[in-house]
# Entry
Amino acid sequence: MQKDSRKGRLMQVGTCVSLCVQQEARPYKYVTVEGPVTAVVPYDADTDLRAMAARYLGDEEAAGFVEGMRETVAKGNGIKVSFKPARWLSADYETT
# Structure
């Protein structure tokens, strides 16, 4: 996340945040988690981005993505937000 984005500017320790992951195709499923922000720190492109990018893009495309994010890191604009899960919700509409 970039700290000068609207979302980045709102991230402060203690602020409550939520995260949702969903499957939009049938059978519908989702998980949400809510909780307070515990840390907002600069991220490192190699340590914090490479593994996630490789998972979704593959190793070759991940290398290009990480390289492209180095400018954001060099400007000190990239942030990593951590939070403490306090509430979980989920649903799985698969029929048996």
Summary: The chain has two domains: 1-42+83-96, 44-77. Residues 44-77 form one domain. The chain is about 35% helix and 35% strand. The chain has a mean pLDDT of 91.
